[in-house]
Amino acid sequence: MWAVFKKEFKSYFLSPIGYVVIGIFLFVFSLFFYILVPQSGSVDLGSLYYYTALYGLMIIAPILTMRMFAEERKTGTEQLLLTSPTSMISVVLGKFLAALSVIIITLLVSFIYFFIVCYFGKPNITSVLAQMLGFILVSSAALAIGMFASSITENQIIAGIITIAFLIMSLFIENLSSIFSSLVIMNFYQKFPTGVISLSEIVGLLSFTGMFIAFTIMVMQRRKLVK
Fold first, then answer.
1. Which of 9, 49, 119, 198 is deepest in the core (most CB within 10 A)?
2. In contact, 121 and 43? CB cutoff 8 Å
3. Phi first, then psi: what are they for 145, rounded to 5°?
């Protein structure tokens, strides 16, 4: 798994992808920082992480995941993946953790804003860390969806569109019926922005993430058996 992780992680920064993701994150975060903080006069960063997760992940998640398996299938390197002695679970988890590591790096960079608001007040570091934990968990769910989308097609663009479509659809599907509420990722990210760590939200996001990781493993395992 760690060999796959290192290979994938390096690929993000040997290409523009990692830098683009960090740039988009900082742009979206800075935009909401400019809109929300000066007007409210608040030093609470919860709303910034919430809106960045709500809108930013629709762009960040597809960029990080659309090439994971789709590119390998298109270029033919998937054969090496399917015939390698490494288990498919290790391959999928290695790729997933590499993408999540890029998200974690962006969060570390976002500490810049914590130090900025320190000039205007005393932000609660515990609340900020809780907000970051929630952001990591909701990002994990979005990445798992994108990874699954990449595993079912050889076209990166289609994989990205599927990921964006699912994330957008999840915002409105609850309006059709309350039975779809469990499909809305942001429903599991309501208390974190307030600095509260909720066990139910942690379980919900981890379950969502685990489900799509399992789907991806099943898709790739089936392709391995067919090959």
1. 49
2. yes
3. -65, -45
Is-contact 77 226, C-beta < 8 A?
A: no
Q: Is the pLDDT of residue 61 over 90?
A: yes
Nearest CA to 98 out of 203, 208, 21, 205 is that of 21
Token reading at 205: 């996001």
User: How many CB atoms within 10 Å of residue 189?
Assistant: 24
Helix H, strand E, coil C: the string for 21-89 is HHHHHHHHHHHHHHHHHHHHCCCCCHHHHHHHHHHHHHHHHHHHHCCCCHHHHHHCCHHHHHHCCCCHH
Asked whether residue 40 carries a pLDDT value surpassing 70, the answer given is no
Residue 95 to residues 68, 98, 134, 153, 216, Cα–Cα distance (Å): 7, 5, 21, 16, 11
